[in-house]
Design brief:
Elements lengths: L5 H28 L1 H5 L11 H29 L5 H23 L4 H4 L1
Helix pairs in contact: 1-3, 1-4, 3-4
Length: 116
C-alpha cells in the first residue's frame, strides 16, 4: 500500500477550504438578506452586499478562480508521475497562502492580502 501523494492531500484539504469559503460567504449574505432570500430563487433585486459580506463573497470568487489551476497543476504532476519534494512544497505553500488569504480579506487588510 502506498501513501497518498502530498499534492492530492493538499487538493483534498482545498476541498474543505472551498466549503469554508462557501459557507462563510453564504452565512454573511443570509445575515444581510434573510432566510427567505437564502431559501428562495434569489430572483429579487437586492441591495449591494455590506462590507464584510462583500469581502467574503469576493474571497470565495477568488478561491474559485485559482482552485482549477491548482487541480490541473497538482493533479497533473501526480498523473504524470512527476510528483517531487518541490511540487509537494509548492502545493503546501499554495494551500497555506489560501488559508491566510481568507482572514486577511475578511478583516480588510490591504496590500498584504494581494501579496499572499
Amino acid at each position: 500500500m502506498t501513501d497518498m501523494p502530498a499534492e492530492l492531500t493538499v487538493l483534498a484539504l482545498a476541498g474543505i477550504l472551498l466549503l469554508v469559503h462557501i459557507f462563510t460567504a453564504t452565512h454573511f449574505k443570509t445575515k444581510q438578506y434573510g432566510i427567505e432570500w437564502n431559501m428562495g430563487a434569489r430572483d429579487e433585486n437586492t441591495q449591494p452586499l455590506n462590507e464584510i459580506a462583500g469581502r467574503l463573497d469576493r474571497a470565495r470568487g477568488n478561491f474559485l478562480e485559482t482552485l482549477p489551476l491548482a487541480v490541473i497543476a497538482l493533479g497533473g504532476v501526480v498523473l504524470a508521475g512527476k510528483a517531487s519534494d518541490l511540487t509537494a512544497t509548492a502545493a503546501w505553500v499554495w494551500l497555506g497562502a489560501r488559508l491566510v488569504y481568507l482572514p486577511l480579506y475578511w478583516v480588510g487588510v490591504p496590500k498584504v492580502r494581494t501579496y499572499v
